[in-house]
Design goal:
heterodimer; A: mainly alpha; two-stranded antiparallel ribbon; 66% helix; B: D-Maltodextrin-Binding Protein, domain 2; 9-stranded mixed sheet; two-stranded parallel sheet; 10 helices; 11 strands; elongated
Chain lengths: 392, 283
């Protein structure tokens, strides 16, 4: 392969035909095919993002209307209304309207009257709760004693404050990283620098085996076993909380962080360690002061990827976090994450409605956050690499 | 048993390939609360009338209504009444209101931990507990402990029923933990001495069912069949099947009539729900 690439630099031939070479059309085809596959992967990611964003766009632009109050017109007025008025009032498309007979329109108007009767009459009914003010800022709803951040989408007045969910996601992710990063870095340093080759052969695959546990199984384990054990040990208020979910999440990201960090540490040239040892440093000093700083970009990448995995993980937090949407920074309170909210509520949300759009907006936020963290990680890695290699 | 399961599996496979609403082929979709009962009905009915294949799936009441309006299902199992928004969508899709059939009764039990000394609560106390006004068990005659609320996900019909009928439309306290199913609610209540939860009366191993008073002066009533059917137990609901009236004929109509007959209602009891009173049955 190596000679092929240098050759192709010299002269580009059709279907791998170069002077003095045998024609290899199959290889050429294979190469182009692989190129297409990789291109389609990028296209997929892009298309998914476009789709999610398209569903969420009306919320970002403030075009969704979730006003709870409904104004209805008496059925008798039907005959005096023009077609255009009826189309607007019944919220149908002109082609749908054409297909309907009078009887159908009459039923629709009756239904609208019934919805008016059902619709709430309190002072908040006229508020469009899907606008940014209500998505982000606290508000004193009827029946509440003070302005609060409330996520209650299935309510007479739909309350869509996303702050509790964002805090929930951050809380579980922070716990997961606080637990997983030291553990997996310690394991990575030990396995790559200090363990005997035989022990290493056992340890590495065993830790990576953790990645093979399906997250739903991990979540179930957290729900049944870990929650009970932790409650007995720490004796906190609610059995399921950010702490339990975070630790379970940590277990899920340990193999990711460990695996990448270990690779980074192993790829530091052996001569670094040997030089350090020759100059009289202990093994610990060599690992901690020479190898770890040299591998820092890789280690950093490991942590960033772990963060991305933790904030996007769904099943574990859905099962083990208690899913109460409260604003609290205590790790021992129940918490509701963005991912669990999407998973639990999307199936029942009215297709194309405001609840549906807001869930997609949460998806977009998750997408952007993981994208930005990966990007930031990449940039920092490059900077660190240059610095470590003595370049500017 | 195995054979019957095989038939259901085969029916499901066939139905996946064939469009809905074919002769002798009925699909039912909707509430997870009703799914076990609906499967049992289908099983018994298919054994009785060979040549009929009935496919039952869950997914939630809302999902069922969406399928009804898309005409991808014949019957929609529902654990709550249809909402006006959903009627509107159905009228737009097939020009008629969906027909509603009450198919059985369900009592909602209030579960507490077996160690909890509280034995009865009034409906008003329940409202105040679940909206977060009452925060300590001692306010309702229990130990001096904070109350841990266990609720259902807001996609569930049980959640909406409880919210409308017990909380009178008010919001659940934000501190309420939400569980993905009634079994998970029970599990949490069984493990947490301070917890209170709610769910179908058919469930209930491992936790204590409270007796409920309609108001402070009325007697406390246990969620037994007799009390639910008589209407003395205050927290109960109908479970429904909705159908597109254009399809409510032939095989589908025969099946719906059978469900509401004495024979169909006998199955209800086996699953742990409560049969319809005599005047609502089809025979």
């Amino acid at each position: 392969m190596a000679t092929n690439t240098t050759d192709s630099k010299r002269s580009v031939g059709w279907m791998g035909l170069h002077r003095g070479h045998k024609a290899r059309p199959m290889e050429w085809l294979a190469e182009k095919f692989i190129f297409l596959v990789s291109l389609s992967a990028i296209l997929m990611v892009f298309l998914i993002f476009i789709f999610v964003l398209r569903e969420a766009l009306p919320v970002f632009l403030g075009q969704t209307d979730s006003t709870a109050a409904i104004k209805a017109v008496p059925v008798e007025k039907m005959d005096t209304m023009s077609d255009a008025e009826l189309i607007e009032y019944l919220a149908v498309t002109p082609s749908e309207f054409k297909a309907m007979d009078k009887e159908t329109i009459k039923i629709l108007m009756e239904v609208r009257l019934e919805s008016e009767k059902e619709s709430p009459t309190d002072k908040d009914a006229g508020i469009n709760t899907a606008s940014w003010t209500y998505l982000l800022l606290p508000y004193q709803w009827t029946g509440y004693e003070k302005p609060e951040y409330i996520w209650q989408p299935i309510s007479q007045i739909h309350k869509y404050n996303i702050i509790p969910l964002i805090i929930g996601s951050l809380k579980t992710t922070i716990v997961a990283l606080l637990f997983a990063v030291p553990v997996s870095l310690g394991a990575a340093i030990y396995v790559s620098q200090m363990a005997s080759p035989k022990l290493k052969e056992w340890l590495k695959p065993t830790i990576e085996l953790l990645a093979g546990i399906p997250s739903v199984v991990m979540g179930f384990f957290a729900l049944i076993v870990m929650a009970t054990v932790f409650k007995a040990v720490f004796n906190y208020e609610s059995r399921l909380n950010a702490f339990v979910a975070g630790i379970a999440l940590g277990l899920a990201i340990i193999p990711v962080v460990f695996s990448i960090a270990e690779d980074a540490l192993t790829s530091v040239p052996r001569s670094y360690t040997q030089a350090a040892l020759a100059l009289g440093s202990s093994r610990w000093q060599a690992a901690w002061q020479i190898v770890l700083p040299a591998a820092l970009p890789g280690v950093f990448a490991a942590v960033v990827l772990g963060f991305g995995r933790a904030i996007g993980e769904t099943m574990i937090v859905l099962l083990a976090s208690g899913n109460a949407s409260i604003v609290s920074w205590s790790f021992f309170d129940s918490t509701r994450t963005m991912t669990a909210t999407i998973a639990a509520e999307l199936a029942e949300a009215v297709f194309g409605g405001h609840h549906y759009r807001i869930l997609f907006m949460l998806g977009t936020i998750l997408f952007v956050v993981t994208f930005l963290s990966n990007l930031a990680g990449d940039l920092i890695i490059h900077k660190l690499k240059h610095k470590l290699e003595g370049k500017r | 048993m195995l054979k019957k399961n095989l038939i259901i599996a085969l029916a499901a496979m066939l139905a996946a390939f064939a469009p809905a609403a074919q002769a002798g082929n009925i699909t039912a979709k909707g509430s997870d609360t009703l799914v076990i009962l609906a499967q049992k009905w289908a099983e018994v009915y298919m054994a009785k009338t060979p040549g009929t294949a009935i496919q039952v799936t869950g997914g939630g009441t809302g999902t069922g209504f969406a399928a009804l309006q898309n005409k991808t299902t014949d019957l929609c199992n529902a654990s709550r009444k249809i909402k006006s928004k959903e009627i509107e969508a159905c009228v737009k899709a097939f020009s008629k209101r969906p027909t509603e059939y009450k198919v059985c009764l369900d009592g909602l039990s209030i579960y507490v931990n077996a160690k909890n000394p509280v034995k009865e609560l009034t409906v008003l106390q329940l409202e105040e507990i679940f909206t977060g006004k009452i925060k300590n068990w001692k306010e309702v005659g229990g130990n001096d402990e904070p109350i841990a609320l266990v609720s259902r996900e807001n996609s569930s019909g049980t959640y909406e029923f409880f919210k409308e009928n017990v909380l009178k439309g008010k919001d659940f306290a934000s501190s309420a933990q939400t569980m993905p199913g009634t079994a998970a609610v029970l599990q949490s209540v069984a493990k947490e001495p301070k917890a209170i939860g709610y769910g179908g009366a058919a469930y209930g191993e491992g936790a204590k069912h409270l007796s409920i008073k309609a108001d402070a002066s009325s007697p406390a009533v246990e969620p037994t069949e007799e009390n639910v059917v008589k209407g003395t137990y205050p927290i109960w609901r109908y479970l429904y099947i909705y159908v597109n009236p254009n399809l409510d004929k032939g095989e589908v109509a025969a099946y719906l009539t059978w469900i509401r007959s004495d024979e169909g209602q006998k199955v209800v009891k086996d699953i742990g729900y409560f049969p319809l009173p005599k005047n609502l049955r089809s025979n």
